[in-house]
């Protein structure tokens, strides 16, 4: 909307409107990040919980956005630590590249960087799996998103309002 006008007050109005549009984008990003936090916390507090054997799957959670690139620098344990670290780095870098190729879009990428995260998530109906963490199990991510979808939409909308 970078147009100038000869009508008195319109230039100021347009400048203020453009400024507010940029603020809405910033607030919307804040809402998306808050939504990611809700999902992550829910997976640790409401069954099915994130399965934990070595803690590497749980630690491989990431959030990538245009402004805040990572939520943490995780440390991984056990004989698979190096491999999980590489998987995590690849997932985060792929997400950064996706964001860089869409600089005008407002979105975040969330997920788990461990290469086996999808397999563990989808273990539903695979017989008697002995989960090492009580109340953990398959569909931990999907369940958290479904349980919180209304709350997520409200947080994004509340943060996107003109203030």
Describe the 3D structure.
This protein has 163 residues and is mainly alpha-helical. The chain has one domain (10-160). The protein has five helices and two strands. The protein is elongated and about 75 Å long. The relative contact order is 0.19. The mean pLDDT is 82.
Q: What is this entry, summarized?
A:
The protein is mainly alpha-helical and 163 residues long. The chain has helices at 10-45, 56-59, 81-100, 117-121, 140-160; strands spanning 61-64, 109-112.
Essential attributes:
163 residues, mainly alpha, two-stranded antiparallel sheet, 2 strands, 53% helix
Tell me the layout of helices and strands:
Elements: H1 10-45, H2 56-59, E1 61-64, H3 81-100, E2 109-112, H4 117-121, H5 140-160
Antiparallel strand pairs: 1-2
Helix pairs in contact: 1-5
């Amino acid at each position: 909307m970078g147009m100038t006008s000869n009508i008195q007050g319109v230039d100021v109005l347009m400048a203020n409107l453009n400024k507010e549009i940029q603020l809405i984008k910033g607030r919307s990003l804040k809402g998306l990040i808050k939504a990611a936090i809700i999902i992550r916390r829910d997976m640790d507090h409401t069954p099915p919980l994130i399965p934990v054997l070595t803690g590497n799957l749980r630690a491989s959670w990431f959030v990538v956005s245009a402004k805040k690139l990572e939520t943490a620098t995780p440390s991984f344990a056990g004989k698979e630590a190096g491999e999980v670290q590489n998987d995590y780095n690849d997932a985060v870098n792929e997400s950064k590249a996706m964001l860089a190729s869409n600089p005008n879009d407002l979105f975040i990428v969330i997920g788990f960087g461990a290469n086996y995260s999808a397999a563990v998530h989808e273990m539903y109906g695979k017989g008697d799996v002995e989960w090492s963490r009580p109340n953990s199990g398959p569909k931990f991510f999907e369940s958290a998103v479904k349980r919180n979808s209304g709350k997520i939409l409200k947080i994004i909308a509340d943060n996107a309002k003109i203030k």
